[in-house]
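User: My advisor, Dr. K., asked me to get a structural model of this assembly before our group meeting. I'm new to this, so sorry if the format is off. These are the inputs:
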Amino acid sequence: MFDIHSHILFGVDDGAGSFVESQAMLRAARNAGIDHIVCTPHYRGNSVNRQRIAENYQTLSAFARKQGFEMALGFEVYWENLAEIGIKNANDLCIEGTDLLLLEFSPGSLPPHWQRIIFDLQGCGIQPIIAHPERYRPIQNNIDIAVEMKDMGCLLQLSGNFAAGGLFSGSKKTALKLLESDLVDYIASDAHSVADYADYKKALALAQNY
Ligand SMILES: [Fe+2]
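Assistant: The format is fine. Below is the predicted structure of the whole assembly, which you can bring to the meeting.
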């Protein structure tokens, strides 16, 4: 099974803190049925260290491949960073070997020109994947925005922790509504730690009802 959004790469964001933790996450991923992993460190703010990401990815991917995993490198790109690096350079942030770009918005609001961002990416031959639409308040309040994203050609990706409820209870309701409306293209672990794979398994089980 394919996991298109994961913070399993150590030492580069708020995900795995060490190579040892990445290794433990690989075991949890395998236990959850995952065998293809896209490492998607946050591309957000001004603390992105591309060199460290490349070095740590070399280490982790070499280890993971020996364990029988397929692995690729991508990024979870925050929309404001996209504006900074320039849409024309966005191809560089696609998932290795694909035209897929994982795009993140803020939970509280979408940028007023979000459609423009999508158009501009598509104009560069990029296929946007919207990371965890279930977390975005405007979509929680109005599912039609997710329909509009799909109509524009975006792919939508749920993150496994919607299944946890609690902090993500608004997300859970919205995730189920998105599943019910057949708007979901991927369910990903978005794992930051070993524990997140348990929610991912719950999310997959929930999704089977739709
Ligand atoms: Fe993420």
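One thing worth pointing out at the meeting: The radius of gyration is 16 Å.

User: Perfect, thanks a lot.
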